[in-house]
Specification:
Blueprint (H helix, E strand, L loop, with lengths): L5 H19 L4 H22 L21 H8 L4 E5 L4 E4 L3 H4 L16 H13 L3 E7 L5 E9 L10 E9 L1 H36 L6 H33 L8 E3 H12 L2 H5 L1 E6 L5 E3 L2 H18 L4 E7 L9 E7 L7 H4 L11 H6 L6 H11 L3 E7 L3 E9 L3
């Protein structure tokens, strides 16, 4: 706390002047001494009456770089990962730990709590604690600089704490932004999955109803409807299989695979399994792999990655084109990694779509994707598997020229 010098200078001038006047008037020494003493007492009383509520014991050091008062409790508060504020009865911040500086970087000693987060529900809750002694828990959103979701627990400071009797409330703030985003992703996922399943199911039910009606005695219509129902049922089966696959991958995503795997051998196996599709999609599949890199991998999952990428390239590459699978040139951005690229000569993908391609159910062209049997989960599965292997998925695309998907994996030493 910064000391104000001007009141003490003024006191010295006034008392010195009074003493000089009394001396000139030849008053006894004890009268001069008593007069000066009275002036000092009056000055002290005036200072107390005019004292700013922010000063003199109402505010403790808040900057983490300043030495904190001794005490095991204080030391623990400094190390807490959750932002914490201690507020006085006057509503001033008495203490803030290191974590609170991350969300309130401009916080200064003695700030009034209402100026920190100008959110009515937060201000009301702290007011209730300070003035009425009410504990509460509130949630609120801040819009600047980015939208964040917070949850604050406001309670009373126990009597006899290290902070002294002037402290009234303690506020603990949790950043729940990531939790809210995850919850939104889950709800979106359920909604999208329900929609994707509902469409083919409604189609099947419609054709069943038709077959039970006027088409039951029409062999040609019955044959046509059964083919469509089989196609829709197959689509549902693929979707359920992909959902189950994605669920299993997410369950083990935190467990890094450790089995050595010859990468080029695995890629060639995946490509060979898809060679029969060349005629169906009217494309040529070429491979050009160099070296003999070994990676730590879950062989089945990595095979699924390559099958998904090569199959996508063959589907969307376009009739009469070539799909190339080759060893990616070394890239300083992916040090100590080996890359395999799957390149097509299709229509390409706009830059506004690239960052969303690995989202669940995201499609650049939904109708085209469904017509080709896509579930909207293929690249999401690829991304999760690559993450589990500690790798990176690089996507480069140019409209009118085609796309390249490169899987970078840490190379085993």
């Amino acid at each position: 706390m910064q000391t104000r010098l001007w009141p003490y200078i003024l006191l010295g001038v006034v008392t010195g002047g009074v003493a000089a006047i009394l001396r000139v008037l030849e008053e006894p020494f004890w009268i001069i001494f008593a007069s000066v003493l009275v002036l000092i007492v009056l000055f002290a009383l005036l200072q107390e009456a005019m004292r700013d509520p922010v000063e003199e014991g109402d505010v403790e050091a808040i900057e983490p770089t300043k030495p904190m008062p001794t005490g095991f409790g204080r030391a623990m508060l400094e190390q807490m990962p959750l932002p914490l504020l201690v507020i006085s009865r006057r509503g001033r911040v008495v203490y803030g730990n290191r974590a609170v500086k991350e969300i309130l970087p401009t916080l200064k000693a003695g700030d009034h709590f209402a100026s920190l987060l100008r959110v009515p529900v937060f201000v009301d809750a702290v007011n209730a604690a300070v003035t009425e002694g009410k504990n509460s828990k509130v949630s609120f959103t801040t819009a600047l600089p980015h939208e964040r979701y917070y949850e604050a627990s406001i309670g009373l400071m126990p009597a006899g704490s290290d902070f002294g009797d002037k402290v009234q409330a303690i506020v603990q703030i949790e950043d729940r932004t990531q939790d809210r985003r995850v919850e939104k992703m889950r709800s979106d996922f359920v909604a999208n999955a329900s929609h994707e399943l509902r469409t083919p199911l409604a189609s099947i039910l419609g054709y069943i109803e038709t077959l039970q009606g006027h088409a039951k005695d029409d062999p040609a219509a019955r044959e046509e409807f059964l083919k469509i129902m089989d196609k829709q049922a197959t689509r549902m089966q693929r979707l359920v299989d992909d959902l189950m696959s994605l669920s299993r991958i997410e369950l083990n995503e935190h467990i890094k695979p450790s089995d050595p795997c010859a990468l080029n051998e695995l890629v060639l196996e995946a490509a060979s399994a898809l060679l029969p599709l060349q005629k169906k999609y009217d494309v040529i599949l070429e491979t050009a792999l160099t070296g003999d890199p070994v990676v730590a991998a879950d062989r089945d999952q990595l095979n699924q990655v390559m099958v998904n990428l090569i199959d996508n390239a063959m589907k969307y590459g376009g009739s009469g084109t070539t799909v190339k699978v080759f060893t990616a040139p070394a890239d300083l951005r992916y040090a100590n990694m080996v890359g395999v690229t799957v390149a097509d000569q299709g229509s390409g993908i706009g830059p506004e779509h690239l960052h969303r391609l690995t989202e669940r159910f995201y499609r650049v062209n939904a109708k085209q994707s469904r017509n080709k049997g896509g579930t909207g989960l293929g690249l999401a599965i690829v991304k999760h598997i690559v993450n589990r292997h500690g790798g990176e998925l690089q996507i480069v695309s140019t409209l009118g020229e085609g796309s390249q998907f490169t899987v970078w994996l840490p190379e085993s030493v």
